[in-house]
Amino acid sequence: MANKEIKTSIEISASPESIWKILTDFENYENWNPFITKISGEQRKGGKLKAVIGGMKFKPLVLKYDENEEIRWLGILFLKGLFDGEHSFQIIDNKNGTCTFLQEEKFNGILVGLFGKKLNTDTKTGFEQMNLKLKELAEKSNY
After folding, report:
1. What is the pLDDT of residue 122?
2. Backbone phi, then psi, for 93, in 5-degree steps?
3. pTM of the shown model
């Protein structure tokens, strides 16, 4: 079984609460998020989501939901073990008026090796583009 991990981060001049408000406003993802273009569902540990991520449809299960700190979910493509991804958003308060936003995903499954190149390019670029848009929104005072 193949494994792959992608990690990105960005510093945002905003409070954890401001960033969290944007991350949990699922209804507006299609208006700003270039990577996760649709998402809906139960925002709680054990909740089920529906998402369009990088053009693919997933129904992830929420593994962790800690307000103003972290959202983590597990998405499975078709059947468990083919192409699974544990995705997380983490907000780290730097205690100086900024936060570090971490977005990462751990992939595993039989098909991960086949998608390795695409994950290194398209998926990582999608994370980075989302991070930049989140920063832009969070740093605006009117969100």
Report:
1. 87
2. -75, 115
3. 0.91
* Cross-strand pairs, 61: 48, 74
pLDDT in tens, 47-60: 999 999 888 888 99
Asked if residue 84 lies in contact with residue 75, where contact means CB atoms within 8 angstroms, the answer is yes
- Rounded to whole angstroms, the Cα distance separating 6 from 107 reads 8
d(CA 122, CA 116): 10
- Give the Å distances, CA to CA, from 11 to 49, 71, 73, 99, 107: 27, 18, 22, 6, 25
CA–CA distance, 108 with 110 (Å, rounded to integer): 7
- CB environment 6-28: b (16+ within 10 A), e (fewer): bebebebebbbebbbebbeebee
Q: How many helices (H) and strands (E) does the chain have?
A: 4, 8
Size of the chain in residues: 143
- Closest among 34, 46, 50 to 125, alpha carbons compared: 34
Cα 111 from chain centroid (whole Å): 21
First to last CA, the chain: 43
